[in-house]
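Final report, closing paragraph on structural work. Over the funding period we assembled a curated collection of sequence-structure pairs, and we close with a single example.
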Amino acid sequence: QPKRKEILRIAERAGVRTGPVYATMVRLERAGWVSGEWVGEGDERRKVYSLTELGAIRTDIVKDIIGGKVG
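Its predicted structure, as stored:
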């Protein structure tokens, strides 16, 4: 899996398991909240995600609902 070490380091710092991170990104991409693009080659290949316009709108709604405690 591309850049697995990098994701493992980030997840470790955040105190989360990596399985849920991958599963969440796939769900967000399917829902249209983020878009993913493969970049790099060989061992440097990784998927980079960007927040979509829909994702930005939805994120603002979620922030409003929970009182702005996200990000």
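The chain is about 55% helix and 15% strand. Residues 11 and 20 are 10 Å apart (CA to CA). We thank the funder for supporting this effort.
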